Amino acid sequence: MSVPLSKKVADDLLTRVAEGEFSIGDRLPTADELMQHYRVGRSTVREAIQELRGLGMVEVRPRLGTRLVAVASPSPMARSAINRILSEGSLDDLYDARLVLEPAAAARAAINRTEADLRAMRHALVDFHDAVERGENPFRADLAFHHAIGAACGNAVLAEFMNPTGTALEEARQATGMLPDAVALAELEHEAIFVAITERNFGAAETAMATHIKSGIRAIERLRADAVPKQR
Contact, 178 vs 14, CB < 8 A? Predict the structure, then answer.
């Protein structure tokens, strides 16, 4: 099972949003521009935009094009919690460790996974999607997905690292779960990781996981920029 072209286009557009290429209210490139940029057909672009529309990320209006819509800001209480989490000096080291270890775990999982492991991953993916549909923070399903990969990798130390109950890493994932576009991107990236592991493609699994962790690092950087008071 391969990732559809439309999902790859939607994934890349979400990455560009997360990196700040587009701001709320900006008009996205036209269908013709997207077709040329991604070298795909009109139907692929249409399906990719529908994917973003279904995630609540864009609105499409005749003659006005596709625009990135506004997203809700975290509540004052949530923002206070984010400030505390982001001020912890160990967070950068934690995400650096994730970037070193989790791609390797995903590659090993692609080699060692069982059908039971795949069922656990798929269950976490469904829970993630259902939480998003209910308007809830899907961080628990996020944790479950990564834990399932750890369990499949065949290394007890990696498995323990990917089950970070009660740590700053878990809290950071909860914080990034407040960013709707980061959540939408994570769902697409999880699917890409799952497909690679299902196909026993260890190289693709490693690459997909590295891409996913880098997206998490960008989300943390955005939270810092938005929630941590500027020094005067």
Answer: no
- Residue 209 near residue 103, CB atoms below 8 Å: yes
- Please write the tens of the pLDDT for every residue from 121-158: 999 999 999 888 877 788 889 989 999 999 999 988 87
Q: How far is CA 46 from CA 4, 5, 34, 82, in A?
A: 13, 11, 10, 36
Residue indicated by tokens 């493609």: 201
Is the pLDDT assigned to residue 78 strictly greater than 50? no
Burial-class residue 231 by CB neighbours within 10 Å (0-12, 13-18, 19+): exposed
Residue 32's Cβ-count burial label (10 Å; 0-12, 13-18, 19+) is exposed
pLDDT for 83: 53
State how far the Cα of 59 lies from the Cα of 47, in Å rounded to an integer.
Answer: 14
Q: Which amino acid is residue 42, in one-letter code?
A: R
DSSP 22: S
For the domain bounded by 76-227, which CATH number is listed? 1.20.120.530
Instruction: Read off φ and ψ for residue 59, nearest 5 degrees.
Output: -125, 145
3-state class (DSSP) for residue 60:
strand
Q: Domain segments of the chain: what residues?
A: 5-68, 76-227
Residue whose structure tokens are 């967070």: 91
pLDDT at 71 over 50: no
What mean pLDDT, rounded, does the chain reach?
Answer: 81
Averaged over 81-103, what is the pLDDT? 72
Residue 80 has pLDDT above 60, yes or no: no
DSSP state of 73: P
Please state which CATH number belongs to domain 5-68.
Answer: 1.10.10.10
